[in-house]
Design brief:
By secondary structure, the protein is of the alpha+beta class. Helix content is 38%, strand content 15%. It has helices at residues 71-108, 115-123, 131-142, 146-160, 218-235, and strands spanning 47-48, 55-56, 61-64, 67-70, 164-168, 171-178, 187-191, 196-199, 212-214. The radius of gyration is 41 Å and the shape is rod-shaped.
Length: 239
């Protein structure tokens, strides 16, 4: 029998290649229960395990992360997940314990700072400092006499900033101010000659000229150091 147009009949396309899905149930091609894949319990399989590829029924399998897994591999997967979670919790606990141990070490130990480094650390506004650094600087400077503290400041401050000028009455002072927004209502000014002057609150001392020369003793020295340390703690977000 001839075909109109002279074209030969095309053969029917073969069945497309199938892929096993881990979640969708499969059926046998013939529909014969004798040919159907069976679970180990003898019931017809609804899929195959994506781990061991064995046929599994609904009672002996479940979906794990979107894939069908037999009950045995599912138990192993859950066990591994629990072990991984336990290990992660242990790791985080160890990191937290190490961080707390480091904070405790910083709270209970002091750095061996030279006096010049200690004065530089507290006076200069060069960024945040740790609690350990501030406490170490205070410890070092408190161990100096008032005269030695003044000498250290006169050595360090010219490298930190240029001398500034303040007025007291008809006299102009040239040196470095010890003041800050978080000082507790008092400020100091150290002249290049090594003389100390004290005044009131921060912001009111630049124009009112109320700087009073003081005898710089250990009590005055401790007050200066404490105010410097407090200002540095505030700047560093520690207070």
């Amino acid at each position: 029998m001839s075909v109109p147009g002279g074209t030969a009949p095309q053969s029917a396309a073969g069945p497309a290649e199938s892929k096993t899905c881990g979640a969708v149930y499969f059926q046998t091609g013939s529909g014969d229960e004798d040919d159907a894949a069976l679970c180990r319990c003898g019931d017809p399989a609804v899929g195959e395990c994506t781990e061991c590829t064995r046929p599994v029924c609904a009672d002996h399998s479940d979906l794990w992360l979107g894939w069908r897994v037999c009950d045995r591999d599912l138990a192993n997967a859950r066990l591994r997940a629990r072990q991984a979670a336990v290990e992660e919790e242990r790791r985080r606990a160890a990191e937290a314990a190490a961080a707390e141990a480091e904070r405790e070490r910083q709270r209970t130990t002091l750095l061996d700072l030279p006096p010049e480094d200690a004065a530089w650390l507290l006076y200069l506004q060069d960024g945040p400092r740790t609690d350990q650094e501030i406490r170490s600087a205070v410890h070092t400077l408190r161990g100096l006499t008032a005269e030695d503290f003044t000498a250290v400041c006169l050595h360090v401050l010219p490298h930190a900033s240029e001398p500034e000028t303040r007025r007291t009455g008809l006299t102009r002072l040239s040196g470095w101010a010890f003041e800050g927004a978080d000082y507790h209502g008092r400020s100091w000014f150290l002249t290049r000659k090594g003389e100390w002057h004290r005044s009131g609150a921060y912001g009111a001392t630049e124009t009112d000229g109320r700087w009073k020369k003081v005898r710089f003793d250990d009590v005055e020295k401790r007050a200066v150091i404490d105010e410097m340390a407090w200002q540095k703690r505030v700047e560093s977000g520690l207070s």
